[in-house]
């Protein structure tokens, strides 16, 4: 896991973020999408909240042993607009997850609906848990 | 925007770079309402951004996975209220490792500028963002003053 990808700045430190940007600093705020992750006999399912991301702004990659989820918010600000209030101060979502070798990374399926990403990672068939009968 | 993306060469993001910069310039720094009496702590669901221009005030509500019909949006004078319910069915026979996403009922109230016209509101829902656009009253728009 790259801890650098998990940096999130918001709220009261907003002014600081702006300053570091002005001086060309490398600190860039990235949104860390909240996730639900669960496992069943078939595999692992991940749901991530990434509001504002459309399919063409989403990138899902397996790099080595990591699943990297990235997306950017596609809001086009209107003419002459100024900000009055902002909870969301960045446009890029990014988060990575370490996979394990019993997962079939070339059979990952993903879908995106209403800003919710669903990723299904199946387990290798031969490694799926089998029920073991207990002999009496 | 890209300095931190050193390991990401995805052309996807290059395409939207300009848009991101505009967004960053708009919402990336301090905003006048940051300490507003109705402002909420970081992480509150749904997150909200508010922008304004001479014609309208636009509220962006970051509400993924909401049925737009279940969302109540009301504007009384210049106070905008949003409430709704986010249902996330729990998977049976599954082992959960993380449950970070918001679930349950929510309500947010924000004060808009006083010159908004409560009769001219539009709302739409796309990619998990509710965009509420409220027109400003004619009298409040800046006018060009002619010099004779």
Topology (elements, then pairings):
The complex is a heterodimer of chains A (136) and B (148).
Chain A: H1 14-22, E1 35-39, E2 43-49, E3 58-63, E4 66-72, E5 82-86, E6 92-98, E7 109-113, E8 116-122
Chain B: H1 11-15, H2 17-27, E1 47-52, E2 56-62, E3 72-76, E4 79-86, E5 95-99, E6 104-111, E7 116-126, E8 129-136
Antiparallel strand pairs in B: 1-2, 2-8, 3-4, 4-6, 7-8
Structure description:
The complex is a heterodimer of chains A (136) and B (148). Chain A is mainly beta and 136 residues long. Chain A has a single domain (3-75, 85-124), classed as Immunoglobulin-like, CATH 2.60.40. Chain A has one helix at 14-22; strands at 35-39, 43-49, 58-63, 66-72, 82-86, 92-98, 109-113, 116-122. In chain A, a hairpin with a 2-residue loop joins β7 (109-113) and β8 (116-122). In chain B, the strands form two sheets. In chain B, strands 1-2-8-7 form a four-stranded antiparallel beta sheet, with no helix packed on it. A three-stranded antiparallel beta sheet of chain B has the order 3-4-6, with no helix packed on it. The longest helix of chain B has 11 residues, at 17-27. Chains A and B meet through α1, β1, β2 and β5 of A and α2, β1, β2 and β5 of B.
Number of helices of chain A: 1
Report low-confidence residues of chain A grouped into runs of 5 or more. Answer: 1-26
> What is the fold named in CATH at topology level of one domain in chain B?
Immunoglobulin-like
CATH class of one domain in chain B: Mainly Beta
Q: Please give the CATH architecture of chain A.
A: Sandwich
Strand order within the widest beta sheet of chain A: 1-2-8-7
CATH class categorisation of chain A = Mainly Beta
Rg of chain B, Å, rounded: 19 Å
How many domains of chain A, as an integer?
1
Number of separate strands of chain A: 8
Distance between the termini of chain A: 45 Å
The largest sheet of chain A is: 4 strands, antiparallel
State the distance separating the first and last CA atoms of chain B.
48 Å
Helix content of chain B: 10-25%
Q: Which range does the strand content of chain B fall in?
A: 35-45%
Give the low-confidence spans of chain B. Answer: 1-9
In the CATH hierarchy, the architecture of one domain in chain B is Sandwich
The coarse overall form of chain A would be elongated
């Amino acid at each position: 896991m790259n801890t650098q990808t998990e940096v999130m700045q918001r709220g009261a430190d907003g002014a600081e973020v702006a300053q570091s940007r002005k001086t060309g600093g490398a600190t860039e705020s990235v949104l860390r999408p909240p996730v639900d992750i669960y496992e069943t006999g078939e595999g692992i399912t991940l749901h991530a909240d990434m509001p504002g991301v459309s399919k063409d702004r989403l990138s899902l990659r397996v790099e080595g042993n990591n699943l990297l989820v990235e997306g950017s918010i596609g809001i086009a600000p209107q003419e002459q607009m100024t900000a009055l209030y902002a909870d969301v101060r960045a446009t890029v979502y990014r988060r990575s997850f370490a996979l394990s070798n019993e997962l079939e990374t070339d059979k990952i399926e993903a879908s995106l609906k209403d800003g919710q990403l669903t990723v299904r990672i199946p387990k290798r068939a031969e490694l799926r848990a089998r029920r073991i009968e207990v002999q009496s | 925007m890209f300095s931190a993306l050193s390991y990401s060469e995805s052309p996807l993001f290059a395409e939207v770079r300009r848009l991101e910069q505009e967004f960053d310039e708009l919402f990336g720094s301090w905003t006048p309402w940051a300490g507003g009496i109705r402002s909420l702590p970081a992480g509150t669901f749904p997150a909200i951004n508010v922008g304004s221009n001479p014609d309208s005030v636009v509220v962006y509500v970051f509400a993924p996975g909401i049925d737009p019909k279940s969302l109540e949006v009301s504007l009384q004078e210049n106070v905008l209220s949003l409430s709704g319910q986010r249902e996330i069915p729990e998977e049976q026979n599954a082992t959960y490792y993380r449950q970070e996403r918001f679930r349950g009922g929510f309500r947010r109230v924000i004060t808009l500028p006083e010159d908004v016209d409560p009769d001219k509101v539009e709302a739409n829902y796309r990619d998990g963002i509710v965009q509420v656009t409220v027109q400003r009253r004619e009298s409040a728009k800046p006018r060009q003053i002619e010099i004779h």
